[in-house]
Amino acid sequence: MRERAIVTLNAVLVDDEELARDELKFLLQDFPQVDVIATGSNGLEALDLVTRLEPDLLFLDVQMPGLDGIGVVRKIRENGLHLPHIVFSTAYDQYAVEAFRLEASDYLLKPIDKARLAETVARVTRTVEAESDEADVPPPSTTNSPPRRTKILVRNGPRNVIVDATDLIYATIADGVITIVAHGVEGLSSYKTLEELQENLDPDLFWRAHRSYIVNVNRIREVVPWFKSSYQLRMDDRKGTEIPVSRVQTRRLREMLKL
User: Fold this and answer.
1) Mean pLDDT (whole number) for 3-28
2) In this structure, which topology does domain 9-136 adopt according to CATH?
3) Is the pLDDT of residue 187 over 70?
4) Which ranges of the chain would DSSP assign to H, the alpha helix?
5) The domain 151-257 is classified under which CATH number: 3.30.2350.10, 2.40.50.1020, 3.40.50.300, 3.40.50.880?
6) pTM score, whole prediction
7) N or C: which end of the chain has fewer CB within 10 A?
8) Inter-residue contact 236 to 219 (CB < 8 Å)
9) Residues 64-73: pLDDT tens digits?
């Protein structure tokens, strides 16, 4: 039987009350599977931390000036960001229905009880373990899949350039527009989503390293250690573009390159 990997939950705490942040951080010290990688004091900081760090777990105060906790989750969804497991915390219980409508993992009332916190951590840990197990399941057979494209069209100003798929270095999406960087040319793709583009590429060659990037594994020049055991990929384009590896894909990167 395959041994299950030990789960570590990278967590971010956001609360506009410093004492509340410190108390929660103190309580979490007794949970070795939780690694608090950052804290914030308002909703805008929460969005920035989620964007940059892609935490597994976000403890989020509901009532904060400006952008509140409910608003943070809505913005994460609207912006297409990686959605962590959300645990709301507040002194009031009237937000519970809305919290669970937003698929929050749990809802803690202040002052936070340690036993209740243990239930929350255990629940999220089980969910992440299940997600990890699903990620390890090999993809279904592609025997009947359509043939992979060997040519890709890149729109560069008024020109429509045809490039070999193997010359594609990476593709990225921003505001619904896909940019392709290939050997000798950079431009836009007519594909609407990265999923659609990836379906037409060789899965042994092209890897979804991050929700916003597909990379050609043969065009990775360097693996750069980054924040909290994560990595960035320096690509073999003329700019030496650095592409983040999502926390979900970090494990595959280690296995693929024997890191």
Assistant:
1) 87
2) Rossmann fold (3.40.50)
3) yes
4) 18-28, 43-53, 69-78, 96-101, 114-136, 194-199, 247-257
5) 2.40.50.1020
6) 0.56
7) N
8) yes
9) 888 988 899 8
